[in-house]
Amino acid sequence: MGGAINGFHKITYPNGDRYEGDWVSNRAEGKGKFVYANGSRYEGSWRHNAMDGAGKLWFANADVYEGEFKQNQLEGHGKYTLSNGDCYEGEFRASLMHGYGICTYVSGDRYEGEYCDNKITGIGVFYYANGERYEGQLVDGRAQGKGSKFFANGDRHVGRWLDNVPHGEGTFYNKDKSYYVGQWEHGLLVQKVREVSAAMAQGLPAPGAAMAAVAAASAALGPTKSKLSPLAPKSGNLSAKPSHSGSSARDAAAIAASGASKGDTSAKASGKGSAPVSAKGPSAPSSAKGSATSASAAAAAAGGLGSAKSSQRGAPLGAPAPPASGSRRGLGMDSERKSANTIASPSAVTR
């Protein structure tokens, strides 16, 4: 093969590797496909004899990467799918998961958040197949720092974590809205600082507050007899005819006549304190209105108590570099999955 290689060419190397694609001055440059003797294959962009730009790489172990490359390394945004079905999509740096990414596991679990040098480190959210999730700080795939664990039954723990378990100050919220503040050490509750019932958490009267409100309303009413008019005639001779003048006399006479027509000579009003006259007074409704206002104020006061990857150097001239062996281990997906799924189960948080 004399002179420089330019344009489209197919070349087979002594070790069994094959390249077909664009060449510029003996270098793979442009679009091309490289099939490696070990079964791996790359198709995509080449620059200065190296995988560079957008491309797709099939590994011999059935892993697949599709995304951006830079000088034979996974660099930029890409999607890496393991042969077991686990998948990472996000940012890469020097063939390592680095930056923001989303990892979906065949188990149904999912992680969304930050990576650092192939490890889940930074701020992220773990979604579990059983309906639970963890949100907060993580180090090497484990809950560490400030975070919140949401349980499938509606409970949640908010506070500080260390090595996947509550450690330090935290608050445990029950699904009924009650909660308690405490101190945890390596997953164990060692001290309760404060506890709030469900009623107090929602601003409702605490147990016993309702009776206090009733007592306050009763005190505001005062003695009942001084507020309400008698509903029965006063003691005395009911058969005696009282003497009245004006409209009151006419009312009394009408009542007496009505009673006489029915053959009841005893149902006659006596004096000015008779029931028909007293019933006109607004004293009873007025007292009831006042008691309701007092009860509301008392109830409000009671309710207020609750407001409480492996790297490659540049390829030699004349032959594109093959993908690094053991790339799956370089990405760390298997080990990452193992640690990612070990964040504390509900039983690890002491209620």
Please describe what this structure looks like.
It is a single chain. The chain is an alpha+beta fold and 351 residues long. Among the domains are: 7-165 and 322-338, lipopolysaccharide transport protein A fold (Sandwich), CATH 2.60.450.20; 205-226 and 289-306, no CATH class. The chain is built from seven helices and 17 strands. It has helices spanning 198-201, 209-221, 246-261, 275-278, 283-303, 327-331, 333-340, and strands at 7-12, 18-24, 27-35, 41-47, 50-58, 64-70, 73-81, 87-93, 96-104, 110-116, 119-127, 133-139, 142-150, 156-162, 165-173, 179-185, 188-196. It has a 17-stranded antiparallel beta sheet. Helix 2 (209-221) packs antiparallel against helix 5 (283-303). The longest helix has 21 residues, at 283-303. It starts with 6 loop residues before the first strand and ends in an 11-residue tail after the last helix.
Q: What oligomeric state do the depicted chains represent?
A: single chain
Task: Look up the CATH topology of the domain at 7-165 and 322-338.
Answer: lipopolysaccharide transport protein A fold
Proportion of beta-strand residues: 35-45%
Q: N-to-C SSE series?
A: EEEEEEEEEEEEEEEEEHHHHHHH
CATH architecture of the domain at 7-165 and 322-338: Sandwich
What is the residue-averaged pLDDT? 71
Largest sheet: 17 strands, antiparallel
What's the helical proportion of residues? 10-25%
Question: Stretches where pLDDT falls below 50 for ≥5 residues?
Answer: 223-320, 322-351
**Structural category:** alpha+beta
Tally of DSSP β-strands: 17
Radius of gyration using CA atoms only: 43 Å
Distance N terminus to C terminus? 77 Å
Q: Which CATH top level class of the domain at 7-165 and 322-338 fits? A: Mainly Beta
Global shape: rod-shaped
| Alpha plus pi helix count | 7
